[in-house]
Amino acid sequence: MNGFVKVVKELPPDIASKEPVRVDCSKRKGQFDYFESVLPSLLKHKYISITPAMSQRRDRYPLYAKAALCQACYKALRLTRSLEMKASQLLDAIPKPFLSLHLRFEPDMVAYSQCEYPDLSPASIKAIEAAQVDRKPWTGELARVWRLRGKCPLTPNETALILQSLSIPLTTNIYLAAGDGLMEIEGLIDTYANIVTKSSLLSREDFTSMHGNTKAALDYYVSINSDSYIATYFGNMDKMVSAMRAFNGLYKTLFFSRRGFAQLTSQGLNGKELKQALWKLHRDDFAKGRGSALSECFCEFKL
Fold this sequence. Notes:
8% strand; 7 strands; single chain; Rossmann fold; alpha/beta
Protein backbone atom coordinates (compact mmCIF):
# COMPACT_ATOMS: atom_id res chain seq x y z
CA MET A 1 0.00 0.00 0.00
CA ASN A 2 3.08 2.25 -0.03
CA GLY A 3 2.25 5.49 -1.82
CA PHE A 4 -1.47 5.12 -1.13
CA VAL A 5 -1.68 4.85 2.64
CA LYS A 6 0.85 6.04 5.20
CA VAL A 7 1.41 3.27 7.73
CA VAL A 8 3.01 4.08 11.09
CA LYS A 9 4.06 1.87 13.98
CA GLU A 10 3.17 4.43 16.66
CA LEU A 11 0.50 7.09 16.83
CA PRO A 12 1.50 10.75 17.05
CA PRO A 13 1.41 12.02 20.67
CA ASP A 14 -1.53 14.38 20.08
CA ILE A 15 -3.66 11.44 18.89
CA ALA A 16 -2.37 8.68 21.16
CA SER A 17 -3.82 10.39 24.25
CA LYS A 18 -7.37 10.26 22.86
CA GLU A 19 -9.90 7.49 22.50
CA PRO A 20 -10.83 6.73 18.88
CA VAL A 21 -14.38 7.20 17.63
CA ARG A 22 -15.69 3.73 16.86
CA VAL A 23 -17.25 3.12 13.44
CA ASP A 24 -19.12 -0.16 13.09
CA CYS A 25 -18.67 -1.72 9.63
CA SER A 26 -19.74 -5.22 10.59
CA LYS A 27 -23.18 -4.92 8.97
CA ARG A 28 -22.24 -2.90 5.89
CA LYS A 29 -23.14 -4.44 2.55
CA GLY A 30 -22.47 -1.98 -0.22
CA GLN A 31 -19.08 -0.98 -1.60
CA PHE A 32 -19.84 2.75 -1.11
CA ASP A 33 -20.35 2.58 2.66
CA TYR A 34 -16.84 3.93 3.07
CA PHE A 35 -17.81 7.22 1.43
CA GLU A 36 -21.15 7.41 3.24
CA SER A 37 -20.15 6.40 6.75
CA VAL A 38 -16.45 5.88 7.30
CA LEU A 39 -14.93 8.85 5.47
CA PRO A 40 -17.20 11.50 7.10
CA SER A 41 -16.29 10.21 10.56
CA LEU A 42 -12.61 10.18 9.67
CA LEU A 43 -12.68 13.75 8.36
CA LYS A 44 -14.60 14.96 11.40
CA HIS A 45 -12.80 13.17 14.22
CA LYS A 46 -9.38 12.45 12.59
CA TYR A 47 -9.02 9.34 14.73
CA ILE A 48 -11.39 6.39 14.35
CA SER A 49 -11.45 2.69 15.05
CA ILE A 50 -13.14 0.42 12.49
CA THR A 51 -14.96 -2.75 13.49
CA PRO A 52 -14.07 -5.10 10.61
CA ALA A 53 -16.75 -6.55 8.38
CA MET A 54 -15.57 -10.15 8.42
CA SER A 55 -18.82 -11.45 6.96
CA GLN A 56 -18.64 -9.43 3.76
CA ARG A 57 -18.09 -11.40 0.58
CA ARG A 58 -14.98 -10.41 -1.33
CA ASP A 59 -16.65 -10.94 -4.68
CA ARG A 60 -18.63 -7.75 -3.95
CA TYR A 61 -15.45 -5.66 -3.78
CA PRO A 62 -14.64 -3.42 -6.75
CA LEU A 63 -11.72 -4.65 -8.86
CA TYR A 64 -9.22 -2.13 -7.51
CA ALA A 65 -10.05 -3.20 -3.94
CA LYS A 66 -9.48 -6.86 -4.82
CA ALA A 67 -6.16 -5.94 -6.40
CA ALA A 68 -5.14 -3.96 -3.31
CA LEU A 69 -6.02 -6.83 -0.97
CA CYS A 70 -4.31 -9.49 -3.06
CA GLN A 71 -1.17 -7.57 -3.93
CA ALA A 72 -0.70 -6.36 -0.36
CA CYS A 73 -0.82 -9.94 0.91
CA TYR A 74 1.71 -11.19 -1.66
CA LYS A 75 4.07 -8.27 -1.11
CA ALA A 76 3.88 -8.69 2.66
CA LEU A 77 4.82 -12.37 2.60
CA ARG A 78 8.51 -12.70 3.38
CA LEU A 79 10.96 -14.64 5.52
CA THR A 80 12.50 -13.36 8.72
CA ARG A 81 15.62 -11.29 8.11
CA SER A 82 18.06 -13.92 9.40
CA LEU A 83 16.38 -16.72 7.45
CA GLU A 84 16.26 -14.65 4.26
CA MET A 85 20.00 -13.99 4.57
CA LYS A 86 20.67 -17.72 4.86
CA ALA A 87 18.33 -18.45 1.93
CA SER A 88 20.06 -15.78 -0.16
CA GLN A 89 23.44 -17.37 0.55
CA LEU A 90 22.02 -20.73 -0.50
CA LEU A 91 20.62 -19.24 -3.71
CA ASP A 92 23.99 -17.64 -4.55
CA ALA A 93 25.74 -21.00 -4.15
CA ILE A 94 23.58 -22.79 -6.74
CA PRO A 95 25.09 -23.01 -10.27
CA LYS A 96 23.12 -20.84 -12.71
CA PRO A 97 20.86 -21.15 -14.58
CA PHE A 98 19.00 -23.81 -12.66
CA LEU A 99 15.71 -25.65 -12.32
CA SER A 100 14.13 -26.11 -8.89
CA LEU A 101 12.51 -29.54 -8.61
CA HIS A 102 10.12 -30.21 -5.74
CA LEU A 103 10.13 -33.98 -5.35
CA ARG A 104 7.84 -35.68 -2.83
CA PHE A 105 8.80 -39.27 -2.14
CA GLU A 106 9.46 -39.48 1.58
CA PRO A 107 8.27 -42.50 3.66
CA ASP A 108 5.48 -40.59 5.43
CA MET A 109 4.27 -39.13 2.14
CA VAL A 110 4.09 -42.52 0.46
CA ALA A 111 2.49 -44.10 3.52
CA TYR A 112 -0.19 -41.38 3.62
CA SER A 113 -0.96 -41.90 -0.08
CA GLN A 114 -1.83 -45.58 0.56
CA CYS A 115 -0.26 -46.53 -2.76
CA GLU A 116 1.49 -49.76 -3.68
CA TYR A 117 5.13 -49.68 -4.87
CA PRO A 118 6.23 -53.32 -5.20
CA ASP A 119 9.48 -52.53 -7.05
CA LEU A 120 11.13 -50.43 -4.34
CA SER A 121 14.26 -51.45 -2.47
CA PRO A 122 13.89 -53.42 0.79
CA ALA A 123 15.13 -50.38 2.75
CA SER A 124 12.47 -48.12 1.22
CA ILE A 125 9.70 -50.66 1.80
CA LYS A 126 10.76 -51.02 5.44
CA ALA A 127 10.75 -47.21 5.93
CA ILE A 128 7.26 -46.94 4.41
CA GLU A 129 5.88 -49.75 6.57
CA ALA A 130 7.26 -48.03 9.67
CA ALA A 131 5.40 -44.85 8.72
CA GLN A 132 2.09 -46.51 7.81
CA VAL A 133 0.71 -47.15 11.31
CA ASP A 134 -2.95 -47.96 10.50
CA ARG A 135 -2.98 -46.51 6.95
CA LYS A 136 -2.44 -49.68 4.96
CA PRO A 137 -2.03 -49.44 1.16
CA TRP A 138 -4.85 -50.31 -1.18
CA THR A 139 -4.48 -53.65 -2.95
CA GLY A 140 -5.83 -55.32 -6.07
CA GLU A 141 -8.42 -53.44 -8.13
CA LEU A 142 -8.72 -50.68 -5.52
CA ALA A 143 -4.99 -49.98 -5.83
CA ARG A 144 -5.27 -49.76 -9.61
CA VAL A 145 -8.22 -47.35 -9.46
CA TRP A 146 -6.49 -45.25 -6.80
CA ARG A 147 -3.40 -44.88 -8.98
CA LEU A 148 -5.43 -44.03 -12.09
CA ARG A 149 -7.05 -41.19 -10.11
CA GLY A 150 -3.61 -39.63 -9.72
CA LYS A 151 -3.29 -40.25 -5.99
CA CYS A 152 0.20 -41.79 -6.04
CA PRO A 153 3.39 -39.70 -5.71
CA LEU A 154 5.85 -40.02 -8.58
CA THR A 155 9.06 -41.90 -7.83
CA PRO A 156 12.45 -40.30 -8.61
CA ASN A 157 12.82 -42.75 -11.50
CA GLU A 158 9.42 -41.75 -12.94
CA THR A 159 10.33 -38.10 -12.45
CA ALA A 160 13.56 -38.56 -14.44
CA LEU A 161 11.58 -40.21 -17.24
CA ILE A 162 9.15 -37.28 -17.51
CA LEU A 163 12.02 -34.77 -17.44
CA GLN A 164 13.60 -36.60 -20.37
CA SER A 165 10.31 -36.69 -22.25
CA LEU A 166 10.23 -32.87 -22.02
CA SER A 167 13.74 -32.74 -23.51
CA ILE A 168 15.24 -31.29 -20.32
CA PRO A 169 19.01 -31.66 -21.00
CA LEU A 170 20.83 -34.21 -18.86
CA THR A 171 23.38 -31.49 -17.98
CA THR A 172 20.71 -29.18 -16.45
CA ASN A 173 21.56 -27.72 -13.05
CA ILE A 174 18.84 -28.95 -10.69
CA TYR A 175 18.18 -27.81 -7.15
CA LEU A 176 16.36 -30.60 -5.35
CA ALA A 177 13.71 -29.13 -3.05
CA ALA A 178 12.73 -32.08 -0.90
CA GLY A 179 12.21 -33.13 2.68
CA ASP A 180 14.47 -35.33 4.76
CA GLY A 181 14.47 -39.05 4.04
CA LEU A 182 13.86 -38.88 0.28
CA MET A 183 13.79 -42.46 -1.03
CA GLU A 184 15.03 -44.06 -4.27
CA ILE A 185 16.92 -40.88 -5.21
CA GLU A 186 19.36 -42.94 -7.30
CA GLY A 187 16.65 -43.20 -9.95
CA LEU A 188 17.06 -39.45 -10.55
CA ILE A 189 20.75 -38.74 -9.95
CA ASP A 190 21.85 -41.64 -12.16
CA THR A 191 20.25 -39.73 -15.06
CA TYR A 192 20.70 -36.08 -14.02
CA ALA A 193 24.14 -35.69 -12.48
CA ASN A 194 24.16 -31.92 -11.81
CA ILE A 195 21.89 -32.04 -8.76
CA VAL A 196 22.50 -29.96 -5.65
CA THR A 197 20.67 -30.02 -2.32
CA LYS A 198 20.54 -27.98 0.87
CA SER A 199 22.72 -30.51 2.65
CA SER A 200 25.40 -30.35 -0.06
CA LEU A 201 25.57 -26.54 -0.12
CA LEU A 202 25.11 -25.59 3.53
CA SER A 203 27.65 -26.28 6.24
CA ARG A 204 27.02 -29.44 8.23
CA GLU A 205 26.51 -27.32 11.36
CA ASP A 206 23.90 -25.12 9.66
CA PHE A 207 22.01 -28.04 8.18
CA THR A 208 21.83 -30.24 11.27
CA SER A 209 20.68 -27.35 13.48
CA MET A 210 17.67 -26.54 11.26
CA HIS A 211 14.21 -27.97 11.85
CA GLY A 212 11.84 -29.07 9.08
CA ASN A 213 9.96 -25.78 8.69
CA THR A 214 13.20 -23.84 8.33
CA LYS A 215 14.41 -26.19 5.61
CA ALA A 216 11.07 -25.86 3.82
CA ALA A 217 11.38 -22.07 3.99
CA LEU A 218 14.78 -22.27 2.29
CA ASP A 219 13.28 -24.44 -0.46
CA TYR A 220 10.46 -21.93 -0.88
CA TYR A 221 12.85 -18.99 -1.24
CA VAL A 222 15.08 -20.78 -3.75
CA SER A 223 12.09 -22.03 -5.73
CA ILE A 224 10.43 -18.62 -6.13
CA ASN A 225 13.74 -17.27 -7.44
CA SER A 226 14.69 -20.17 -9.71
CA ASP A 227 14.80 -19.95 -13.50
CA SER A 228 12.23 -22.75 -13.74
CA TYR A 229 10.14 -24.65 -11.21
CA ILE A 230 8.77 -28.16 -11.57
CA ALA A 231 6.67 -29.98 -8.97
CA THR A 232 5.78 -33.66 -8.89
CA TYR A 233 2.92 -32.99 -6.48
CA PHE A 234 0.42 -30.18 -5.83
CA GLY A 235 0.62 -29.56 -2.11
CA ASN A 236 0.63 -26.35 -0.08
CA MET A 237 4.29 -25.66 -0.86
CA ASP A 238 3.69 -25.98 -4.60
CA LYS A 239 0.63 -23.73 -4.50
CA MET A 240 2.51 -21.02 -2.63
CA VAL A 241 5.56 -21.19 -4.88
CA SER A 242 3.60 -21.19 -8.14
CA ALA A 243 1.40 -18.31 -7.02
CA MET A 244 4.35 -16.18 -5.91
CA ARG A 245 6.26 -16.95 -9.11
CA ALA A 246 3.25 -15.90 -11.16
CA PHE A 247 2.85 -12.74 -9.11
CA ASN A 248 6.48 -11.90 -9.83
CA GLY A 249 6.06 -12.62 -13.56
CA LEU A 250 7.93 -15.94 -13.55
CA TYR A 251 5.77 -18.29 -15.60
CA LYS A 252 8.19 -21.17 -16.20
CA THR A 253 6.29 -23.34 -13.75
CA LEU A 254 5.03 -26.86 -14.38
CA PHE A 255 3.19 -29.52 -12.41
CA PHE A 256 3.67 -33.11 -13.52
CA SER A 257 0.42 -34.99 -14.10
CA ARG A 258 0.35 -38.04 -11.84
CA ARG A 259 -3.03 -39.06 -13.24
CA GLY A 260 -1.83 -38.76 -16.83
CA PHE A 261 1.33 -40.73 -16.11
CA ALA A 262 -0.66 -43.52 -14.45
CA GLN A 263 -3.14 -43.72 -17.30
CA LEU A 264 -0.44 -43.85 -19.98
CA THR A 265 1.59 -46.55 -18.24
CA SER A 266 -1.57 -48.57 -17.57
CA GLN A 267 -2.04 -48.72 -21.35
CA GLY A 268 1.27 -50.53 -21.67
CA LEU A 269 3.18 -47.62 -23.19
CA ASN A 270 6.94 -47.59 -22.68
CA GLY A 271 10.18 -46.36 -24.21
CA LYS A 272 10.00 -43.77 -26.98
CA GLU A 273 6.23 -44.13 -27.32
CA LEU A 274 5.70 -43.30 -23.65
CA LYS A 275 8.03 -40.28 -23.82
CA GLN A 276 6.16 -38.87 -26.82
CA ALA A 277 2.84 -39.33 -25.02
CA LEU A 278 4.21 -37.63 -21.88
CA TRP A 279 5.38 -34.66 -23.94
CA LYS A 280 1.94 -34.27 -25.52
CA LEU A 281 0.38 -34.57 -22.06
CA HIS A 282 2.41 -31.68 -20.62
CA ARG A 283 3.13 -29.40 -23.57
CA ASP A 284 0.04 -27.19 -23.16
CA ASP A 285 0.97 -26.42 -19.55
CA PHE A 286 4.72 -26.14 -20.10
CA ALA A 287 6.14 -22.72 -19.12
CA LYS A 288 2.84 -20.93 -18.66
CA GLY A 289 1.30 -22.00 -15.35
CA ARG A 290 -0.09 -19.50 -12.87
CA GLY A 291 -0.62 -22.01 -10.12
CA SER A 292 -3.28 -21.00 -7.63
CA ALA A 293 -2.58 -17.25 -7.66
CA LEU A 294 -5.75 -15.20 -7.42
CA SER A 295 -6.80 -13.87 -10.81
CA GLU A 296 -7.59 -10.41 -9.44
CA CYS A 297 -3.86 -9.95 -8.75
CA PHE A 298 -3.28 -9.76 -12.49
CA CYS A 299 -5.57 -6.89 -13.36
CA GLU A 300 -4.42 -3.50 -14.63
CA PHE A 301 -4.21 -2.03 -11.12
CA LYS A 302 -0.54 -2.28 -10.07
CA LEU A 303 -0.08 -0.82 -6.61
